[in-house]
Design goal:
alpha+beta, OB fold (Dihydrolipoamide Acetyltransferase, E2P), 3 domains, about 30% helix, about 35% strand, binds zinc ion
């Protein structure tokens, strides 16, 4: 872990500023108070050093850090990254009864991915008013770092400054969205032993034969029963479909289910088209049967959520993104792996 003892930080500040140690310590104590206990004394020392323009960690010229260098020991960080996904704002109530909102992003740069969490209503407004979208590049300053359930989390403070698509050199170096998805940490199926979000690279080796069609609300795309959407009442439903498959990556295999858009992508046609085709052939499974030779054995990169199937008790993945491998990026990944 990147930890610098507080004495050393004070020493560095003293060297650069010529200030007395006592004065520096007082500044640090004031900073702890100013941030009302949000940071440790050590964290405050980092901020004070930062305010004097003293760099304790290796950063880019602008003080922006690459994701791989953002570690839990770091109490303050600024970075520029691309938004891979926006998790919409959620309301919550504290034990004391206070209401608030929280929102988060998954962001990435060429060195990794992390979650960024927002609590400040003004910052959340940017998302609610659609001023920030997936694919945008954001620069955020003055965040703090936490170890979350799924790895590193960076939390924005109210004082954090957010720049959307900043015109800076670092922003231009960030790979495009599709490349970032492909550069993500990948696992082998045999290493998936608990629920979570994973990316795998494998091929569909089998597709279950069942009626793949179901009906969704044209407004919210949620499943409807007897033309009734829980939210929108009586609707004229649209067709959607799902494919229940077995994916093998050479290490092991697992059930992967593709719903909606992902299923359409695999099949190469819309659910409406597939449904029409199935009606013409009087066979719900016809569109899948017909495309099977092209689908089976084709390699895919699949990102999805793994959880336990209620019936079988086995782990299965619900795909949420499917990409056909890009050979150039794949080769780079392999080289990177061999080098590390
Ligand atoms: Zn609806």
């Amino acid at each position: 872990m990147l930890k610098i003892p507080i004495d050393e930080i004070i020493k560095k500040i003293k060297e650069k500023t010529g200030l007395d140690e006592k004065v520096i310590e007082k500044k640090i104590d004031e900073k702890v108070e100013e941030l009302s206990g949000l940071v440790s004394k050590e964290g405050a020392a980092h901020i004070v050093a930062n305010e004097f323009g003293i760099q304790l960690f290796k950063t880019t010229e602008s003080g922006l850090q690459k994701i791989k260098n953002i570690v839990p020991g770091l109490k303050i960080t600024s970075f520029v990254a691309r938004i891979l996904r926006i998790y919409p704002p959620k309301e919550f109530k504290t034990k004391k009864g206070n209401e608030g909102k929280v929102c988060s992003f998954l962001v990435g740069d060429d060195t990794g991915r992390m979650r960024v969490v927002f609590w400040d209503t003004n910052q959340i407004k940017l998302i609610e008013e659609n001023k920030i979208s997936e694919g945008d590049i954001i620069k955020i300053t003055n965040c703090y770092v936490k170890e979350g359930l799924n790895g590193i989390e960076v939390h924005a403070r109210s004082s954090s400054k957010i720049d959307v698509n900043p015109n800076i050199k670092e922003a231009k170096e960030i790979p495009p969205l599709e490349d970032l998805w492909q550069l993500s940490q990948r696992v082998q199926i045999k290493n998936i032993t608990e629920k979570g979000v994973y990316e795998i690279r494998g091929a569909i080796v089998n597709i279950l034969e069942n009626n793949p069609f179901y009906e969704i609300c044209p407004e919210c795309r949620k499943r409807v029963n007897n033309n009734i959407c829980e939210e929108h009442g009586e609707v004229k439903p649209k067709k959607s479909m799902f494919l229940s498959t077995i994916v093998d990556d050479g290490s092991d295999n697992m059930r992967v289910v593709f719903f909606g858009k992902q299923a359409e992508q695999i099949l190469g046609m819309s659910a409406e088209e597939a449904y029409k085709l199935s009606q013409e052939h009087n066979n719900f499974f016809y569109p899948v049967q017909n495309k099977k030779p092209q689908i089976l054995g084709r390699e895919l990169i699949i990102e999805g959520r793994v959880s336990k199937n209620d019936f079988s008790g086995e782990l299965e993945m619900i795909a949420r993104r499917v990409v056909l491998p890009n050979p150039v990026i794949e080769a780079k990944n392999i080289i990177k792996e061999l080098e590390s």
